Amino acid sequence: MKDGGGKLVRWRERISSEPSHLTDIDNEQSVLISALSMIKHKGDPMDCFLKSHCSEDPHPLKRGSETLFINAAMEGSQDILIQPPWVVDIELPAAV
Predict the structure, then answer these.
(1) How would you write the pLDDT of the chain (96 residues) with one tens digit per residue?
(2) By the 8 A CB rule, do 87 and 49 touch?
C-alpha cells in the first residue's frame, strides 16, 4: 500500500513477540484492495469508494488472522479527488 488505497493483510500463523509488517505479514495471502493510482477520478467530492468484506464477498475479513488497512485521508479538490473517502462494510460480532 505504498501509494495509498487499501490492503487486506493476512498475518503468518506464528508471529514474533513484537509483530512487524516486515516479518509477520503473509504477502502471498494478502490482497491489494485498491491502490491510489486505481481510484483517482474526476467527479463529485461527495463520491466515495465502496468496499464490502462480509462472509458472502470474494475476500471476507477473517477474524484473528487478517487486518484491513485503509489510507482514509481525503485529498484533492472539487474537480479531482486524488483520494475519495472510503465506506467499508464488515460483519461485527453481536454484543453480549
Answers:
(1) 445 578 889 999 998 888 788 889 999 998 887 766 655 555 555 566 677 788 888 878 888 888 888 887 777 776 666 666 778 888 887 887
(2) yes
**Distances in whole angstroms, Cα of residue 61 to Cα of each of 25, 41, 42, 79:** 15, 27, 30, 34
pLDDT of residue 2: 46
Three-state helix/strand/coil letters over the chain: CCCCEEEEEEECCCCCCCCCCCCCECCCCCEEEEEHHHHCEECCCCCCEEEECCCCCCCCCCCCCEEEEECCCCEECCCEEEECCEEEECCCCCCC
Tell me the three cell numbers of residue 27.
504477502
Structure-block grid coordinates of residue 4: 495509498
Cα–Cα distance for residue pair 45/93, rounded to 1 Å: 33
